[in-house]
Design goal:
homotrimer, alpha+beta, 60s Ribosomal Protein L30, Chain: A, 3 helices, 5 strands, about 25% strand
Chain lengths: ~160, ~160, ~160
Amino acid sequence: MTGTIEAKLKDIGLDLPEPAAPVAAYVPAVEANGLLHISGQLPFDPQGELMTGRLGESCDLETGQAAARACATMLIAQMKAALGDLDRVKRVVKLGVFVNSAGDFTDQAKVANGASALMQQVFGEPGRHARSAVGVPVLPLGVAVEIDAIVQVHEA
Amino acid sequence: MTGTIEAKLKDIGLDLPEPAAPVAAYVPAVEANGLLHISGQLPFDPQGELMTGRLGESCDLETGQAAARACATMLIAQMKAALGDLDRVKRVVKLGVFVNSAGDFTDQAKVANGASALMQQVFGEPGRHARSAVGVPVLPLGVAVEIDAIVQVHEA
Amino acid sequence: MTGTIEAKLKDIGLDLPEPAAPVAAYVPAVEANGLLHISGQLPFDPQGELMTGRLGESCDLETGQAAARACATMLIAQMKAALGDLDRVKRVVKLGVFVNSAGDFTDQAKVANGASALMQQVFGEPGRHARSAVGVPVLPLGVAVEIDAIVQVHEA
């Protein structure tokens, strides 16, 4: 079965980026008791630039959704780096979505859908996950969205 | 033993609402390796209306606590929907409480107690949980409180 | 092997404080299925006073890092209280770091490093963890940083 998800990535034309190095003294992901906890990922655009801005101010909904999708893409890149083979993903369990938001922006769920849709597209039914999505006033390096994840994995 | 917690709900007069459908592309709860991760739940009042507002501005402490309790009620409704039987709840492990807060409102813990007290009332000792409670500047659809949860479950 | 981490604490001159009692209706930590979930911890200075303030306004980076380290110290104190012996810590899995931030402060990662560095110093390789770090507009009791944690534990 090895390579099923990789084939899916090819099908949908999704190139995984180099997994981002942590910007600080921690690691991208830790596997413990069958669950992989992945650090909060920041969004990079196709040119490798950070996607910054605040929803409701300097970032529109469509761009926010693209940023969420970029975070999810990086989460998948981290899964591959940590697990070796994306077919070891048994279930995407939970996404924690933090949206850089003006005080009157209340469409965090729509922003987060950019990430959720990609997980389902890539992993199918096992890509359907629990989620929380909240507004925050600011994020590291000024990015628009940050997302962390918990993934259930098959034994190596 | 089936029905112990249901009986407790009757004792305290708590009617579970219909579990809310996700407002987006995800699922309400995922069970993996004996832990149920439940999506962030929004508060609904008895009329089924979203409880909106910001603590320290448009929402007082008592209303905030009622909103936290309403989130907890919905979490329990999601547990029932996911597990079939609430007696499969072995331990409420963790609540993540996000309180829509003005910059000078610092009683997030008191707000969150509205949820914590209900968990203990319904589940007894196994309802006692770890928790984080933080302020956020805004939440989806303008609600006052959002709460997600991790629950340890008995095998089905 | 009992006492290895305690000896390390002595080596680096770190005195654990009394583990803080929850400020509300919950418990400091819950062990379930080999994972210890620890409640969000607030920072106390050596005099036992809460470390308050907002990064980018009333709290500079160095003080914020000290506050993050103080949260991490309290997390370790809670591990000891919950597990009895710190040598039961198998792996620090995840830190969730919430930084009280002005809207233009984007160095949450640098603040969080105050906690991450201590975990690695105390636990060595098993202290290296996944992490998310986000800005929030306000925290309980006005503290500068709040951190929760997930820790993989050896069976008692």
